[in-house]
Amino acid sequence: MSKMRYSRRSMLKAGGAALAASTLSAPMVWAQDIKNITLRQFGTGVSNLNDVGTKVKEDLGFTLEMTALDSDSVTQRAATQPGSFDIADIEYWICKKVWPTGNLQAMDVSRIENYDKIVGIFKSGLLTPESDIAQGTAPHTVGFIEEPGAKTFASEETNWMTLIPTIYNADTLGIRPDLIGRPIDSWAELLNPEFKGKASLLDISSIGIMDMAMVCEAMGEIQYGDKGNMTKDEIDKTLAIFTEAKKAGQFRAFWKSFDESVNLMASGEVVIQSMWSPAITAVKSRGIDCVYQPLKEGYRSWGGGLGLSSSLSGMELDAAYDYINWYLSGWVGGYLMRQGYYSAVPETSKDYMSENEWGYWFEGKPATGEITSPTGDVLAKAGDVRDGGDFYERMGRVACWNSVMDQNQYMVRKWNEFIAA
Amino acid sequence: MRDSTGKAPGWGVTLMRNRHFVGWLQAAPLSLILIGFLILPIITIVIVSFWQATEFSIIPAFSLENYEFLFGSPVTYKVFGATFKYAFLTWAFTLSIGFTVAYYLAFHIRSQPVQIALFLICTIPFWTSNIIRMISWIPFLGRNGIANQALISWGVIDQPLEWLLYSDFSVILAFVHLYTLFMVVPIFNTMMRIDKSLLEAARDNGASGFQTLVHVIVPLTKPGIMIGTIFVLTLVMGDFITVRFMSGSQRANVGRLISNDISLLQYPSAAATAVVLLLTVLIVIGILLRFVNIRKEL
Fold first, then answer.
1. Around A273, how many Cα atoms within 13 Å sit in the side-chain half-sphere?
2. Burial tier of A381 (Cβ tally within 10 Å: 0-12, 13-18, 19+)
3. Looking at chain A, which residue has its C-alpha nearest residue B77?
4. Confidence (pLDDT) at A373
5. Is any Cβ of chain B less than 8 angstroms from the Cβ of A1?
6. Helix or strand or coil: residue B8?
7. In CATH terms, is domain B75-297 a member of 1.10.3720.10?
8. Which residue intervals of chain A bear CATH 3.40.190.10?
9. Residue A420 burial (CB < 10 Å; 0-12/13-18/19+)?
10. Which residues of chain A have pLDDT under 50?
């Protein structure tokens, strides 16, 4: 592994070259000064990993302080406490809410070394030239602005990026195949009376409503114009169906935090529920059979990225650019991909993964040996295949992106009614 | 007035001799703290409750929309109803358990060291955090939990009882577990102050044990019961996390309504709900205080 490691010197050279290349008359970042820089990053637990902080110190020399919060608190903080962070690790739909506050500043694309290699989803919106664009807040729709300081988003690629994409994934339902004992292939199964009292849904309204929409559409009950931006009428119908199911005792519980979803599944309280990829991993690592079930209607997808606080300037801003370039250069990508997420620049991550790992996680090939998580837990044995196939198969079947609706406030009130029902 | 040197005293001395000024000075520290940390925040909440909000900004313009929505929505009444239900049931259980425990400690245990030892045992659960004590019920009551497994192995039931967890039952169970001590302590305290000669007098006059309890002990314990009641009611009515965890997010009380609004950045609407809740709790406590004068106890 040693040949892959950056020395501080080489990074500084790269950083210096990038600075020299840029037209801005930024000051040179000196080795002594950079040690004193501290960047404060906050975001969801997904990518706020202490290992990343340690590696940053090692490779880049400065200190990265990280705070992990749930997605509601992240939104709150980005919107209301701009002075409390330097780097925001947020999801694209949160960006849609937060950007108009002016608390984030756009990034100069010409200073991003690996920009050309970033996956198309985040630039043109197309995974491959033939792909369709899914419903919801697709990342490219909130990824660019026309000029620094603009409060509205640009309709196409520009030189100013709002968030630098870091990780993303396609979400689906998690199931306990040992307790269900038959194949599951549709979102509609969540409301199947067969699983009465054994189903669960996440109680984060903006994401939960999308899972509901996937279910209602799969049942053939509702046809949505855009699941990511429903009309009042669509919201009413969707919640009516789920309120009825709730009153009939379909749900065992709703969950809000990652750990709750893991416990519900691992204890057998629930056999089918909305779930996130690392939660499946956590259940599996307890030796319990749990599958992230690909469904014929497609996935609900999400993506996250790093945004810069508008208060960053001078040397801190340069350090932040160094950090972003480092983030996309492969080490973090490899780390995240070995947890089952995707990196925004997959090809750089390849260098930091073994052939077996790359084959299993990205190409959907059977594992040739044991697959372990970055922390050493065994996740798959030789011969196992990843749920849902290869990268293009999974990300190509996204039906909807996590989003924030125009009728958000109405939806939230309806959601409160649903919980109280 | 002149002092021995014949000079007029400085204005500071005159001021310090003023009774009213000294009184104000002595009251100042507490007043300032209460104004800064209680009165001002409440005023702020009341003001914000008349504002409006979008996802990312707050519009500071007077509007009654939050209250209109609150009083116009059937959810509000349902949720306040649930909050009262939780508060009442928890109160009833904590009172009966708390009174029994305190009675036993105060009148049946004769030696003071044993009394103190047993009282300390009551506080042992408080050595761990609220959340831990609450969450530890979840594996116990779950579908494959210890309670269900034990009942099945004893042959009492064939199927696991679903209502043990994620139900009103589990919510109230957790509340009672968490808050009974708040009832035991003030009741025990008032009982210890009852003059034992009164009990002797009751007995000498031919009262049965039950009559003594109803006509002597209960009336004299009322202030303690009232203090415990206020503790339990305010704790339960302001709670949101117990309801969320123990009902698996399937039930709502007012606290959860507020916390949902806050998490979605709807501060004005959360503030409006908080104001209504605050008034409700104050009214309830106001009514309770009409019955008993707790100052006697303090």
1. 33
2. exposed
3. A420
4. 82
5. no
6. coil
7. yes
8. 2-170+301-352, 173-297+390-420
9. buried
10. 1-28
ipTM value, please give it: 0.76
Which residues of chain A make contact with B69, given a CB cutoff of 8 A? 413
Instruction: Work out the pLDDT band at B9, boundaries 50, 70, 90.
Output: low
Q: Does an H or E element contain B52, and which? A: strand B52-53
Nearest-Cα distance to chain A for B80, in Å, is 10
pLDDT at B6 over 70: no
Reported confidence tier of residue B92, pLDDT bands at 50, 70, 90 = very high
Cα atoms in the Cβ-side hemisphere of radius 13 Å centred on B27: 8
pLDDT of residue B55: 62
Residue among A72, A79, A255 whose CB faces B263 most closely: A72
Each residue's pLDDT tens digit, B197-210 = 999 999 999 999 89
Chain A, nearest residue to B163 by Cα: A252
> B-chain residues within 8 Å CB-CB of A73?
263
Output the pLDDT for position A198. 94
In whole angstroms, give the CA distance from residue B60 to residue A12.
48
Shortest CA distance from B258: residue in chain A: A416
**For A151-191, how does the pLDDT look when each residue is reduced to its tens digit (9 = 90+)?**
889 988 899 999 999 889 899 999 999 999 999 999 999 99
The answer as to CATH 3.40.190.10 being correct for domain A173-297+390-420 is yes
Per-residue model confidence (pLDDT) at position B88: 96
Q: Where are the domains of chain B?
A: 11-48, 75-297
Nearest CB neighbour to B166, from listed A75, A253, A416: A253
Considering only CB atoms, which chain A residues are within 8 Å of B56? 79, 97-98, 100-101
B250 contacts in chain A (CB < 8 Å) = 246, 251, 253-254, 419
The 10s digit of each residue's pLDDT in B53-63 is 776 667 888 88
- Cβ distance of A75 and B265 shorter than 8 Å: yes
Asked if B265 lies within 8 A of A80 by C-beta distance, the reply is yes
**According to CATH, what is the number of the domain A2-170+301-352?**
3.40.190.10
Contact A419 B256 (CB under 8 A): yes
| Sequence-ordered list of residues with C-beta below 8 angstroms from that of B161, at least 6 positions apart, any chain | B147, B148, B151
